[in-house]
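Let us practice reading a record.
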Amino acid sequence: MSFEPLEKQELALESTRRALVDSQSAVQEKERLLHELQVHQIELESQNRSLREMQSTLEESRTRYAELYDFAPVAYFTLDQKGCILEVNLTGASMVGRDRAQLIGMPFVSLVRVEDPGNFWAHLRRCASTRSSVVSELALGLTRAGRIHVQAVSTPVIDSAGVAIAFRTAFTDISDRKQAVALEKEARQAEQRLRAQIEAVDRAALAVTRALATADNTTEHVLISIIQQAAQLTGAEFAAVGIDEVVTAYPRRPGIEGVLAALALDGQSLRIRDVRAHPSFAGFPASHPRITSVILVPIIYGEVTLGSLLVANKQGAAEFSEHDQHSLEMLSERIGFALEIARLNAKQTMEHERLHLLADTGRALAATLDLSLTLEMIARLAIPRFADFTMTFLYEHNELKSVSAAHRNNAIERQVAELRTFKPDPHSWITEILKSRQAALVPKLGISNIRDPFVFKLADTLGLDSFIGVPVISRDRVLGVMLFAAAGANRQYDSMDLAMAEEIAYRTALAVDNANLYEVAQSAIRSRDNLMAIVSHDLRNPLNAIFVNLGLLLRSGGAGERRKGHRQLELIKLSSDHLNRLVEDLLTASTIDAGCFTANRRPEAVSVLFEDLVSGFEPLAHERGLTLETSPAPEVLKVECDRDRMFQVFGNLVANAIKVTPRGGKIRVSAEADGAFVRFSVSDSGPGIAAENIPFLFDRYWKDDTSGKRGTGLGLYIVKGIVETHGGKVWVESQEGATFWFTLPVAP
């Protein structure tokens, strides 16, 4: 069998198998390509869907942008190099008041009125040259909106050659912001003005406060400070302040009749361009300066109107401003507090003055018992602290007479002297005070019902219009009347002043009563002294005759005769000696009282004085069982004294010591140098002196009734007079026994 056909069949089969394999591969490739095509189609569809979505979004964005561009609150313009409009949004078209289609190609400056065109063109040139955004502020005049302020922000449009061919410009209305800035600036300026105003008012108030703090913090002083500050604060030519009917002015009072009364009734501030046009204006006083513009402001403290503050004639201006009125009103608020403080200060000062016046009155009453001098001093003390005029009437021989009168102005002494001749009639105001025994007050003469011609004469002659009359009463007996008067511009009496006047009158009554009693006592003393002088003088002559005859009787006759009547004669002589000492003491005391006591002083050795003392009193001390000793005195220790008077001093002191010292006691006399003096002492071991009696020991006629010792009470009084006449002093100490000390000047 041939293998050739077989091989051909195998080859055909192989070829067919291969063809079949290739066909399967082609199918698979086709299927793969078909799959890839399907995938690609799906991807294309997805991409197409995304593109459609993106296109839709883009269209939406373009629409939104167009809407934002057209309806944005900012006006957008695209301008070419010549300033013509290439594009504009609806806001821009609305701003210029034209249809957008009509604006294309029109010059921008022809549609709006640029207040500063040069600034606008400089803005575009700067944008072109810098090829960057430029910001400027422009003022535009629009037909509908009027003048507005805008902020222009321009961005250049650059071509391929780098040249600015157009400008996209946004105009933002900043009028509100500019207005806010202007308002803020105005507010700052107003704040600065207000601060300056408050500072000026504070400075004025501080000046018034300083016036309060000064020593002269009276109401008048404060008022002067107030009007000066008011004039300076408002730039006024005149200023015045009225408080309690007292008007203080600078430099003089603007007498605007009628308008001030209108302010007082209304209680509201007034600012008048021309005061003569005010319906309440009633004219100016004669020779008054011209007044035009005024401000009147009430001064109020709490809810009480204290007075008014006035400024007139604005310097350099036709009228005062509202600012001036406001400043004056703020000052018046502070013035209310200042015046209240001034009132309290014035009240406190017045109380101090009253206390000082009462104290000075007490000292004046204690200074002398001379009635006329006392009344004159009281009258002078009351002026000017309490009154401008005083007058005192006293009963003399059952007739009321003026005994003193004084006025604060010494230049009108003649008128005051003429007034002193006045004698109240039975129906006068002063007589009524005497009859009623009650004080009377006339706060202001013009509004009182008093009809006394003398009071009106005082008002006319001395310008007085406030009066107080007080009865002078002592021990339920009317002694007279005191009259106090004052000028109403300076003082208007009230109930407190009335109480003060009554206190002065009470003290005056005591002074008058004491002066009368003193005069009676002096008259009695003069009568007593005259009687004592006569008695002592007349007693000396018979006493001398008794001494002479006693001497003759004691020396005459024989021894038997002397023994028979000698004892009786000695007793008569002792009684005569005692009587003579009493007469001498009375004469010495009278001489001391009269201020006529003298001493014949010369140098004396202390040792010699002690020798005389011992020789004179040692026998008496020995007889009483007492020891009398003296301290050794240096021979050079000398005093300047009247030897006889010193023996009288030692005699009285030692005699008293002998009287009070019990038997067995001791009396010691000593002396020692004490600078320019020699200090002497006389001490005893007796019972001593009660402490309550020591202040009265050296008084005339004083005696310790409890001691049981008899005497005239003149011994220590004479000792004090003699020692003081020598320029020394005397005193006493008492602890165990008593020690009397006195000093005498050392002899040169």
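A brief commentary: DSSP finds 18 helices and 23 strands in the chain.
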